[in-house]
Amino acid sequence: YVPPQVRKAQEALNDKKREELGRLKKMVNGLINRLSELNLSSISGQMEELYMANSRKDMNETLTDILMNACVTAVAMPARLMMEHVLLVSILHHNVGIEVGAHFLEAVVKKFDEHSKSDAEGKECENLLALIAHLYNFHVVHSLLIFDILKKLVSTFTEKEIELILFLLKNVGFSLRKDDALALKELITEAQRKANTADKKLQDQTRVRFMLETMLALRNNDMRKIPGYDPEPVEKLRKLQRTLVRSSGSGKDTQLRVSLESLLSADQVGRWWIVGSSWSGAPMINDTNSKTQQKLYIGKVSSKIMELARKQRMNTDIRRSIFCVLMTSEDFLDAFEKLLK
């Protein structure tokens, strides 16, 4: 039983909270509507101030809702507009905290999974995929997630999936090649095998041929073979990002190294990629379902250092990681930052 006066107080509190959220939404909406490359610096500054003045949870939810409404439409969104929106998320991700990018990424990936299973005719899937691609372009998420999505699309391999594979490769193909050429090569081999077995079923043969040609052009690092490929806008915005991101460790250290499976099952197994995120589910120890053991990221260290780690009997991933950090750091501050990561 809740006494009437307590009930009244709760209702008043809820109304007050609703009013605050409405006001916050208006402010964020106003900033997002004015967003362009020229005023990105002032708008990201104002967004940071809002993050300092309001609760992170409210801000993350409001920002994600507004960006999703703005970018996920039934018609294809202009690439430039997409990039500017994602660049704002990236700057906040680096300057405010990684939970900003993590919250937005999780919402986008879940929505993409939902839309990829439905047979809707709109361009929502392409728009969501463009958001994920640019989150990778602006160093919010690691290539691991992109490869997971590509593998999933290749395993289904219908006309809709082929379209999405082409779209994703055109946006981030050469960056993937730079990050992990071996994984890209494996993906291309798998796609060729799928194309050979699915030849009879697919009506649009030219689309498959075009996809395979695009993949070969990627493997051979031949940019001329990909029609409409222009790395210029992304490069320009990356330069702008470097000027607006404050922390010295901006770049690859703050990338979320999270797999597709982890993001989709975040509600069941918790969000281990966000430092300090609370989780009230069942303990994950002895969980027979999640056999995907996440490897710790050691980074691009030379084989010489790895050999040294082996000689020093660093026999687990975490020991090797710490050893590599200590051996490759420039000074104590660099070592401290990397160890925290």
TrEMBL record:
GO terms for cellular component: nucleolus. May interact with EIF4A1, EIF4A2 and EIF4A3. Interacts with PPP1CA and PPP1CC. Pfam families: MIF4G. Gene3D superfamilies: 1.25.40.180. Belongs to the CWC22 family. It is found in: Nucleus, Nucleolus. GO terms for molecular function: RNA binding. The keyword Nucleus applies. One of its GO terms (biological process) is ribosomal small subunit biogenesis. The keyword Nucleus applies. It comes from the Eukaryota. Plays a role in targeting PPP1CA to the nucleolus. InterPro entries: ARM-type_fold, CWC22_splicing_factor, MIF4G-like_typ-3. Residues 7-34, 181-208 form a coiled coil. This is Nucleolar MIF4G domain-containing protein 1. Keywords: Coiled coil, Nucleus. Residues 25-222 form the MIF4G domain. The lineage of its organism: Eukaryota, Metazoa, Chordata, Craniata, Vertebrata.
